[in-house]
């Protein structure tokens, strides 16, 4: 049989990748045809994305795919990180470069927003944990700082929908990415009028919500279908797990963020879920990802930047041989949020909380990985407590994303969580993106997803080891937090 082709554009906060997939006889073969590194940069006082570079990554990815195939790919799908957006004016032109979620402006206005709608109210209205990075906080800050903006904007488009629109898709917002905004009702069947009112957000900004994993247009003159693959990278990563729509399982999608969560059929909007710091985000196939946005390998990436060290594998190997400091940090502490001198920030945090600090890079990297493993364990326990028997002790955790390459972190996670870790795709978002496209164009059936994944990538399983070191570190962290 002839292979079906699809092109996934997977945009991360430090690199954009174009991955070409060919599906033949139930086996998906992928090939990276283009990659661009990029970074948010200060422009006129705001941290902004280089939108020209991101658009050209899409165009260059398409060119590279055509060259590799000798023809146009049958479809294209774009996924990006969550929460960021572009604002179109009434003529459909982009008003200014999209701002980045690590920009400082939200801190100036978050208290005012929470004065209008408190955290519990916002959570009730959206099922999403109020966080300053959310689109809701960002837009509120925009409206406060830019008089007249409310009238100038024709539509707010999350990044994947913005880029798809530039290719020719009609204005619309996919449900999965909409669920990261903090502006949509739980399950993202509709926008939240409560949030729009609290923010004074003109409802005209909010474009129609549309299903993911369906064809939503085509690129003029090429026949390439534009599919919304679940425009959120984490939704795509979860799609790559090959779970059935109602299957409940634990997962970690580990990159700059460690997204730890459980797939569940319906949003869970009860107080315990808010207390556990969890969000109900929407899956590509419509179910829910109940998850925590935990700071992840960002800590390591920022250390690497400070050290001018590109060799992650070398650092991780050295960390495997280094002596543990015996304590861990809380990766989610606001001290680690902004770009900066991360080794210094981590050292200071340890001094302040334990009176000691790591010496040398290897011990610093070990500290980061042990901290992530402990955080994974804490949240896995909370998720299991809330979701119940489907996540009983011993039920595995699926680990995908760039962090799946880091065997030391995967093993630490298995041991700290006392659960087997099933290692899935490293390029999980691209994989899920491609699968959603094949399902949308009819090249694959949703019920065959699991079989395709099994036949296309190897799944290693790591078994837990003696957890006592992690138990000690978690107890010390708990005591340090109280102090
Ligand atoms: C991961 C991610 C995550 C959050 C964050 C802003 O790349 O998409 O799920 O939404 O970025």
TrEMBL record:
<protein>
    <submittedName>
        <fullName>Rhamnulokinase</fullName>
        <ecNumber>2.7.1.5</ecNumber>
    </submittedName>
</protein>
<dbReference type="Pfam" id="PF02782">
    <property type="entry name" value="FGGY_C"/>
</dbReference>
<dbReference type="GO" id="GO:0005524">
    <property type="term" value="F:ATP binding"/>
</dbReference>
<keyword id="KW-0547">Nucleotide-binding</keyword>
<dbReference type="InterPro" id="IPR050406">
    <property type="entry name" value="FGGY_Carb_Kinase"/>
</dbReference>
<keyword id="KW-0684">Rhamnose metabolism</keyword>
<dbReference type="InterPro" id="IPR018485">
    <property type="entry name" value="FGGY_C"/>
</dbReference>
<keyword id="KW-0418">Kinase</keyword>
<feature type="domain" description="Carbohydrate kinase FGGY C-terminal">
    <location>
        <begin position="251"/>
        <end position="438"/>
    </location>
</feature>
<keyword id="KW-0808">Transferase</keyword>
<comment type="similarity">
    <text>Belongs to the FGGY kinase family.</text>
</comment>
<dbReference type="Pfam" id="PF00370">
    <property type="entry name" value="FGGY_N"/>
</dbReference>
<dbReference type="InterPro" id="IPR013449">
    <property type="entry name" value="Rhamnulokinase"/>
</dbReference>
<dbReference type="GO" id="GO:0042732">
    <property type="term" value="P:D-xylose metabolic process"/>
</dbReference>
<dbReference type="GO" id="GO:0008993">
    <property type="term" value="F:rhamnulokinase activity"/>
</dbReference>
<keyword id="KW-0067">ATP-binding</keyword>
<keyword id="KW-0119">Carbohydrate metabolism</keyword>
<dbReference type="GO" id="GO:0019301">
    <property type="term" value="P:rhamnose catabolic process"/>
</dbReference>
<feature type="domain" description="Carbohydrate kinase FGGY N-terminal">
    <location>
        <begin position="6"/>
        <end position="219"/>
    </location>
</feature>
<keyword id="KW-0859">Xylose metabolism</keyword>
<dbReference type="InterPro" id="IPR018484">
    <property type="entry name" value="FGGY_N"/>
</dbReference>
<dbReference type="InterPro" id="IPR043129">
    <property type="entry name" value="ATPase_NBD"/>
</dbReference>
């Amino acid at each position: 049989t002839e292979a079906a082709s699809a092109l996934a554009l997977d945009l991360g906060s430090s690199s954009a990748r174009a991955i070409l997939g060919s599906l033949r006889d139930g086996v998906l073969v992928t090939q990276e045809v283009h990659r661009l590194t990029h970074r948010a940069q200060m422009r006129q006082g705001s941290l902004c994305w280089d939108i020209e570079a991101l658009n050209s990554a899409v165009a260059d990815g398409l060119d590279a795919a055509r060259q590799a195939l000798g023809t146009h790919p049958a479809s294209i799908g774009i996924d990006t990180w969550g929460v960021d957006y572009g604002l179109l004016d009434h003529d459909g032109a982009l008003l200014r470069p999209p701002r980045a979620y690590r920009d400082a402006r939200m801190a100036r206005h978050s208290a005012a927003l929470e004065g209008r709608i408190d955290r519990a109210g916002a959570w009730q209205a959206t099922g999403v944990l109020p966080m300053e990075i959310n689109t809701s906080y960002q837009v509120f800050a925009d409206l406060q700082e830019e008089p007249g903006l409310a009238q100038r904007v024709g539509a707010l488009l999350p990044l994947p929908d913005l880029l798809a629109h530039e290719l020719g898709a009609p204005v619309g917002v996919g449900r999965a990415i909409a669920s990261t905004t903090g502006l949509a009702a739980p399950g993202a069947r509709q926008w939240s009028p409560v949030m729009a009112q609290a923010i004074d957000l003109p409802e005209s900004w909010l474009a129609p919500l549309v299903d993911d994993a369906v064809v939503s247009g085509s690129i003029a003159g090429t026949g390439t279908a534009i599919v919304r693959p679940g425009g959120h990278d984490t939704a795509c990563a979860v799609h790559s797990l090959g779970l059935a729509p109602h299957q409940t399982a634990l997962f970690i999608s580990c990159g700059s963020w460690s997204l730890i969560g459980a797939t569940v059929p319906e949003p869970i909007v009860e107080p315990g879920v808010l207390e556990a710091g969890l969000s109900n985000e929407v899956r590509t196939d419509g179910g829910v990802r109940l998850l925590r946005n935990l700071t992840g390998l960002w800590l390591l990436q920022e250390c690497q930047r400070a050290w001018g060290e590109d060799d992650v594998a070398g650092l991780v190997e050295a960390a495997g041989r280094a002596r543990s400091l015996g304590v861990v940090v809380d990766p989610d502490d606001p001290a680690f949020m902004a770009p900066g001198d991360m080794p210094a920030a981590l050292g200071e945090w340890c001094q302040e909380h334990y009176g000691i600090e790591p010496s040398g890079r290897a011990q610093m990297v070990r500290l980061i990985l042990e901290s992530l493993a402990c955080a994974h364990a804490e949240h896995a326990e909370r998720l299991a407590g809330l979701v119940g028997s489907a996540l009983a002790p011993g039920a595995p955790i699926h680990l995908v994303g760039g962090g799946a390459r880091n065997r030391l972190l995967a093993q630490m996670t298995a041991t700290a969580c006392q659960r087997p870790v099933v290692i899935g795709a490293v390029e999980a978002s691209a994989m899920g993106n491609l699968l959603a496209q094949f399902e949308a164009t009819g090249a694959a059936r949703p019920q065959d997803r699991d079989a395709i994944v099994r036949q296309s990538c190897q799944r290693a399983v790591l078994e837990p080891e003696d957890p006592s070191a992690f138990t000690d570190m978690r107890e010390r962290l708990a005591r340090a937090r109280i102090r």
